[in-house]
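[job 4471] stage=fold_predict status=RUNNING
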Amino acid sequence: MSLPTLPMVGDADVRSVITVADALEVVEATYADFGADRLSLSAPTITRLGVSGGTRGFGLKGALLDRYGVAGVRVTPTHTGGRNSWCLVLETESGRPLVAVEETWLHRLRTAASAAVAARLLARPDSKVLTLVGAGQIAAFVPAAFAEAFALEEIRVVARTAGSAADFVARQPVAPGATLTPYDGLDAAAPGSDIVVALTSARQPVVHPRHFGPGVTLLGLGGGAEIAAEIVTGPTPYGTRAPAPDAAEAAGCGGVAGAVLAPEATGHGTGTADRFFVDDLGYAREIGSVASWLAAGLPPRTLDARLTGSLPAVAAGSLPGRTHPDERVLGIVQGVAACDVALACLTMRRLGIG
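[job 4471] inference complete, writing structure tokens
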């Protein structure tokens, strides 16, 4: 009996056909498709496989993309720290498996590209100074992605120690037109920054309202509690300052769930977000800063009231991102599986598979 063979594409082949510019283009187009209901995500966003308390497990995230005529599932073994992740791509019409694409390098690139696309949607176009908080394996992809998206002059790097930041900078290739500089802490690096990207596994907040000045775009990508809740709620206790949906309607926000009132209407304090976006709220509720706020007692109603909307809606043109140069704009970017599937599909086609 002759069995069909499923093509399996490893990291080396992926890197031979996908560029940083490709990743930015695919992520932005996929965000726009998501915002215009031209794709669908798995529901729930992530499915976890494994016996409770067991030592082996997997996370599955999927999407169906009308643009490419494919569906896909990203399979990540949790017990290997995400290594040996694969994206299985299937033809929508027939359901036939087309390819399995290794996701280690590609996923890291996609994550950095998602941050750069989010910044392009939310930040001032003339942004020159990026501060990167975190020096891990995914962070290594951030300088190139942002250098592709902005005419940066300086990339500041903050890590757990000044030595780690210096080591990270020493390992990085030179970003075109931008200097890479290690900093001894965010208190030193934040002043003068246009964009701050947090990409950490911190269990306690490392980005606080004092780091979030006027005009800054703050992006949270990490899996821990890296961004202080006060950046969303303001300096008062949970639930006392954020407007409820009916209050938003009374203030002329159209009664849209997640509308945010102007700073003068809410009385938000210094360092509090004027506009707040997420890429996928369902997944953000399970991981990262949003999940940590909810676990610490932030009422879901307050979160919904403070949320301006989704990054895909901004990409699709149905919602404005930044509306004033001095706004403090927060974006939580936890990852949309459709972007992984789209990049795996592009890899497949570039290699002549399917």
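[job 4471] summary: The chain has 14 helices and 15 strands.
[job 4471] exit 0
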